[in-house]
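pinning this so it doesn't scroll away 📌
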Amino acid sequence: MIKKGCERAEITLKDIDLNRPELLEKRKTRVEEIQKTLNACHRCTNSVVKELLIEELKSEYATDKEYSMFVRSVINSHDYK
């Protein structure tokens, strides 16, 4: 996503080709994996298992992880702190 009117982001996106098919597919796959864990967390009734799933999600927002900002945003929006 490019912030409206952000020329620098647009240039970077085009310059390093961030929307090439293999990267788009990789992002899609990663988001789907995270979504599966999130869905399992929603469905889970066992508090111990649910806590393990939440911890798994939280490990995904370490600064060295891809999509950490996305995962952190999802976790915060679902109040899994």
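📌 and the second one:
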Amino acid sequence: MERLTQPEEDALRALWHTGPAFVKDVLALLPTPPPPYTTLASTLRNLERKQYVQAEKLGNSFRYAALAGRAGARAFPRLVQGARFFLCQGGKGERR
């Protein structure tokens, strides 16, 4: 999982608040001024690519649902950073 941009965090928070939702539903929960519909749709697709959300095609629309919970989304980047440090130090777990 990659780090999130501020617009991605805002969209993910909206999905945590509503549960599975369409782009227009997420758009209604974002702070003013909201991004254009197409920008938010791209942001949600990026979140899907980063594996933070899952998209389900319903007719001509997609319904998005958060895969990562709040704690998991915050902890994962720190976990990866810790693993990188550990692996780059030869597995010794000490600073050089």
